[in-house]
């Protein structure tokens, strides 16, 4: 143990040791004067003695039906739900809020079935489409992903029969 102290007493190391110790004491002494290093004191609980005012609930009027505001929605019995899982194999993280469009077009259908959504997390992106019960096959399933960062992905697949379960669709960067 005596040898360890002799090592510290050497003049070359004594100056460095004194500098380190004085800096440590200086920083410790200044910490009391710095307000950002002190922890805030907990607020004392207070008891409210004033009564709360009564809250009026607003009355909601039913919406006025107008021919321009109504839209045709496919009845549940005349449609089939199709789950689509859209993913890509690129090693890139796209920001939330990217625009994803998934569509299905059948050979006899004059109007495509389209779902537009904004992404909130990473892939796979789950989308639900409502297909008409009388849809004929083959049909084309396609997806386009336009990221807010400027990246664009797209892909398509052919449905040869009525889908059961989740349909996977892989998209790749489009140029």
Overview of this protein structure:
With 175 residues, the protein is an alpha+beta fold. The chain has helices spanning 2-9, 11-31, and strands spanning 79-88, 99-105, 113-118, 125-132, 139-146, 152-159, 166-173. Strands 3-2-5-6-7-1-4 form a seven-stranded mixed beta sheet, with no helix packed on it. A hairpin with a 6-residue loop joins strand 6 and strand 7 (166-173).
Low-confidence stretches: 64-75
Helix content: 10-25%
Largest sheet: 7 strands, mixed
**Would you list the SSEs in sequence order as H and E?**
HHEEEEEEE
Distance between the termini: 72 Å
Radius of gyration: 34 Å
Quote the average pLDDT: 74
Shape: elongated
Query: What spatial order of strands do you see in the largest sheet?
Result: 3-2-5-6-7-1-4
Structural category is: alpha+beta
The fraction of residues in strands falls at: 25-35%
Total of helices: 2
- Strand count: 7
Summarize the helices and strands and which ones pair or pack.
Layout lengths: L1 H8 L1 H21 L47 E10 L10 E7 L7 E6 L6 E8 L6 E8 L5 E8 L6 E8 L2
Parallel strand pairs: 1-7
Antiparallel strand pairs: 1-4, 2-3, 2-5, 5-6, 6-7
Characteristics of this structure?
7 strands, alpha+beta, 175 residues, 2 helices
Concise account of the structure shown:
The protein has helices at residues 2-9, 11-31; strands at 79-88, 99-105, 113-118, 125-132, 139-146, 152-159, 166-173. By secondary structure, it is an alpha+beta fold.
């Amino acid at each position: 143990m005596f040898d360890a102290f002799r090592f510290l007493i050497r003049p070359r190391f004594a100056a460095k040791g004194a500098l380190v110790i004085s800096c440590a004491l200086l920083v410790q002494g200044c910490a009391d004067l710095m307000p950002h290093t002190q922890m805030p004191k907990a607020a004392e609980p207070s008891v409210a003695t004033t009564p709360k005012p009564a809250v009026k609930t607003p009355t909601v009027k039913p919406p006025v039906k107008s021919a321009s505001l109504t839209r045709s929605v496919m009845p549940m019995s005349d449609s089939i739900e199709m789950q689509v899982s859209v993913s890509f194999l690129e090693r890139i993280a796209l920001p939330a809020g990217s625009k994803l469009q998934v569509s299905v077009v059948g050979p006899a259908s004059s109007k495509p079935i389209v779902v537009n959504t904004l992404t909130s997390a990473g892939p796979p992106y789950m989308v639900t489409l409502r297909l008409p019960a009388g849809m004929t096959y083959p049909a084309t399933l396609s997806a386009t992903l336009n990221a807010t960062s400027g990246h664009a992905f797209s892909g398509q697949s052919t449905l040869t029969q009525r889908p059961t379960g989740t349909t996977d669709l892989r998209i790749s960067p489009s140029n």
